[in-house]
Structures are given as structure tokens and as C-alpha cells.
Amino acid sequence: MLNIILLGLPGAGKGTASAPIIDKYHVAHISTGDMFREAMAEETPVGLEAKKYMDAGDLVPDEVTAKLVEERLQKSDVLNGFILDGFPRTTVQAELLDQITERLNKPLSKVISIDVPEDILVERLSARYICKNCGATYNKISNPTKVAGVCDRCGGKEFYQREDDKPEVVKNRLKVNKEMNTPLIDFYDAKGLLTHVNGNQAPEKVFADIEAAWLTNIGGLFFSNLTKKCYNSQV
Ligand code: AP5
Ligand code: MG
Ligand code: ZN
């Protein structure tokens, strides 16, 4: 079971990096931002609550977000594992996630921090566009569709920009997330789960580095279990 968290500031490429992982490993993609946007579109109580915060680029309260994630982690498509994209975002959420993963017996395999300089993030967010049909994410500057105006994944021809990618909202999103990011990184570093990956390189390279990070980890676990077995058989 591959249970990963992708950390990274807005625009770091969490969603983009998730796509090839899901294709290859068939794990569930759990993006709290996507879930809130769906709830907003459906005008559910959670969606209406989240809208107040998201429109301003602020964080939705920890308990609301953690409850959503706990419900999502109990769905059947999580059996192979999961990628948490954009959760946790505060140390309170990280502590709540510890309790959730313990209750559901789904221990974390790896936490990846996708690191990108701030000036690149601002540029990326202002140039992002998304396929209306399948949700694939592109970028006018760094990651356009192969054929202009046609989605690589589904052939769709309609695209949109996110409401919170407006320059005034982007500024606050980056500020709020930056404040929360360092303690979160320290939290997972202290648990020995964290690996930094350079997000300022081609998406294929970002994916390769992420894969290398957990393969090393799984290898490490394998060898540590093997060592324990050898040790136990000697005593
Ligand atoms: P969310 O939707 O998670 O937004 P975010 O964290 O701001 O991150 P983004 O989705 O903007 O960026 P990304 O890292 O996924 O980058 P992407 O792959 O799209 O959250 C939205 C809001 O919901 C929050 O502000 C908050 O209000 C609320 N919320 C969500 N989770 C919450 C939580 N846990 N607690 C409280 N509130 C929460 O890439 C960006 C662009 O760059 C694209 O155009 C892409 O094509 C391009 N790109 C990506 N990778 C590369 C690359 N390697 N090279 C070149 N270009 C690239
Ligand atoms: Mg995203
Ligand atoms: Zn599409």
C-alpha cells in the first residue's frame, strides 16, 4: 500500500505530479482543494462553508477539512493507497491525520515536499488553465496542450481558469500557506518521513524524483525488516 502526502505551496505542482502517480500505481487522488471546489459547485453545506475562505485565499477550518478527508479515506478506491494533495496544511491537520490513519490502519509511506521558488509560483498560477471536461491542468507558459486548444487527455476543447488564481487572491494564498509550510515540513522531518524534491524542473523529472524517493524508502523498509528477521533468528 502506497500512502503518500504531497506538500508544496500553491502552484508547486502537487496536482500535476499526482496524475502520473495515479496512472502508474492506481492509488486514489485525494485533493482537498478539488473536493471543496466540487462541494462548492454542488452548493452542499461544506461547499458553502468552504467558499467563504477559498474566495479570499484563506484556509478552510482544520476540523471541517479533516472530517472530509476521514470520510474520503474510507471509500473503496483507497484500498491500493492514496495521494493526499493539499492536506495536511497545518500542524493541527497533521496531528488529526495521525489519529485518522491510526483509526483506519493506513500508515503513511512517505511525505514529499515539492519545492519551487516563489517568483515561479506566481508566474505559474497566473498562466494555469484547466480542462472543463476532465480536469487536466495546463500552463500557457510552461506546460501547454500538445495541440493548441485541445486537451491531451480527453480531447476536450473547453478550458477555464480558477477563481483563486486572480493576482490579489494568489498573493494571500501564498502568504497564508508559506506561514504554515515550515512547521509542517519540520513535523514530518522529525518523523523521518520527509523527502524534498525539486519542483522547478520538467514534470516528468519531478515524477521520477518522487518515485525514486519512495522506492528508496520501500527498499529501506524491506532491508530493515530483513535485518530484524536475521537478528531475530540469531537470538
Ligand atoms: P488547492 O486546490 O489545493 O490549491 P493550492 O494548494 O493553492 O495548490 P494548487 O492546486 O493551486 O497548485 P498545485 O500544487 O496543485 O499545482 P498544479 O499542479 O495545479 O486549494 C485551494 C484552496 O482550498 C486553498 O486555498 C484553501 O482555501 C482550500 N483548502 C484546500 N486544502 C485545504 C486544507 N488542507 N486546509 C484548509 N484549506 C484547504 O500546477 C500549477 C501550474 O503549474 C499549472 O499550470 C501546471 O501546468 C504548472 N506546472 C506544474 N508542474 C510544473 C512543472 N514541473 N514545470 C512547469 N510547470 C508546471
Ligand atoms: Mg492542485
Ligand atoms: Zn480533458
Describe the secondary-structure layout.
Blueprint: E1 2-7, H1 14-25, E2 28-31, H2 32-42, H3 45-54, H4 62-72, E3 81-85, H5 91-104, E4 110-115, H6 118-126, E5 128-131, E6 137-139, E7 159-160, H7 167-190, E8 194-198, H8 203-234
Parallel strand pairs: 1-3, 1-4, 2-3, 4-8
Antiparallel strand pairs: 5-6, 5-7
Helix pairs in contact: 1-8, 2-3, 4-5, 6-7
Summarize the structure in words:
The chain contains 8 helices and 8 strands, in the order E-H-E-H-H-H-E-H-E-H-E-E-E-H-E-H. Mean pLDDT is 91; it is low at 219-235. The protein has 235 residues and is of the alpha/beta class. The longest helix has 32 residues, at 203-234. Helix 1 (14-25) packs across helix 8, helix 2 (32-42) crosses helix 3 (45-54) and helix 4 runs parallel beside helix 5 (91-104). The radius of gyration is 18 Å and the shape is globular. Strands 2-3-1-4-8 form a 5-stranded parallel sheet, sandwiched between helices. Strand 5 (128-131) and strand 6 form a beta hairpin. The structure holds BIS(adenosine)-5'-pentaphosphate, magnesium ion and zinc ion (ZN). Zinc ion binds at residues 131, 133-134, 136, 151, 153-154, 156.
